[in-house]
Design brief:
- This protein is an alpha+beta fold.
- The chain has seven helices and twelve strands.
- It starts with 14 loop residues before the first strand and ends in a 55-residue tail after the last strand.
- Bound molecules: zinc ion (ZN).
- The site of zinc ion has 8 residues, from loops.
Length: 301
């Protein structure tokens, strides 16, 4: 008996809103839809998750498999906020929407297991095509006008390679610091209409920004960003203290909550999209970045 070959199964043939509403892609792809179809993982996806590749490569691959993007659209051009939303929705379609994590009450130390529906129970900040977010800011001291953008997958791929090359040259250099500045520099499209020739030039510009200008830029990046905020409000079951926990997207986010399935491995966790830690933008994960809670962005409105 032969198994009948099947077409790729459209498990979720319904539209999902991308946090960006497709706005960053409209210049090159005017027909980019506001919502796209997102399916579930397959056994092939699980095999990729269990492999030894980098998190960046695994995500990129999975997006190409689970998301129906317009013909010819390069996955690398997706902003990371959209990428992470697709990953979260596909995960929900595969393993169910409930994600469990443990949280320790800061008041009494009680540790409880929290169940959260992802992404339904998380705040999502979406852009609106009819009310586009201002992607520019005038700095208070220098009066410079900076046009910004959100980080894309290709930024993350390049930065990841760049960090690896630095790591091999100088293992003691603190990578978080340099990737932090690099992420900001990549988001600068222009300053007073001028475009930096290299990302290093943008980095130099950032290094000499006066404090109030730096803060204004940070706030602008945070407030203008779209994406899922991986933050959940918890009421302690022991002392009723209410606190917020930001959960990192780490290995167990991508595997079934089932004993005997412990191989899914995305590499190190990445911070949630849109966190102040990475400039309130999209959260380019670095393979070297430690696992840990990160603060979330301000929700929309
Ligand atoms: Zn408590």
């Amino acid at each position: 008996m032969a198994l009948k070959p099947r077409e790729a199964v459209p498990i979720a043939a319904k539209g999902y809103w991308l946090p960006s509403a497709g706005i960053p892609y409209l210049d090159e792809f005017p027909d980019f839809p506001e919502e796209i179809e997102i399916g579930s993982y397959t056994i092939e996806t699980e095999a990729v998750l269990a492999s030894n590749g980098t998190a960046v490569d695994k995500f990129r691959y999975i997006i190409g498999r689970v998301a129906k993007l317009p013909k010819g659209f390069p996955v690398e051009k997706l902003i990371i906020a959209d990428e992470m939303a697709i990953i979260a929705i596909a995960r929900g379609q595969t393993y169910g929407e409930v994600y469990q994590f443990s949280a320790t009450c800061p008041s009494c130390g009680h540790q409880s297991i929290v169940s959260c529906r992802v992404p339904e129970e998380l705040p999502v900040k979406r852009w609106d095509r009819n009310n586009r977010p201002p992607m520019s800011v005038t700095l208070p001291v220098s009066k410079d006008v900076i046009v910004t953008r959100m980080l894309r997958i290709d930024d993350e791929v390049r930065t990841s390679k760049w960090l690896n090359s630095i790591k091999s040259l100088n293992p003691n250099q603190p990578q978080d610091t340099i990737s932090y500045i690099r992420d900001k520099a990549l988001q600068i499209v222009s300053v007073n209409g001028g475009v930096a020739d290299t990302v290093e030039e943008a980095e130099e510009y950032l290094r000499i920004l006066p404090g109030p200008d730096m803060i204004a830029l940070q706030e602008h990046l945070t407030n203008s960003a779209c994406g899922i905020r991986y933050e959940y409000t918890i009421t302690c079951e022991k002392c009723a203290h209410v606190f917020e926990r930001v959960f990192p997207i780490q290995n167990d986010f991508f595997r079934r909550n089932r004993p005997g399935w412990a191989n899914a491995n995305i590499g190190d966790a990445r911070p949630a999209p849109g966190t102040p830690e990475n400039g309130g933008t999209t959260g380019a994960a670095r393979e070297s970045r430690p696992v840990g809670p990160v603060p979330g962005t301000n929700p929309a409105g």
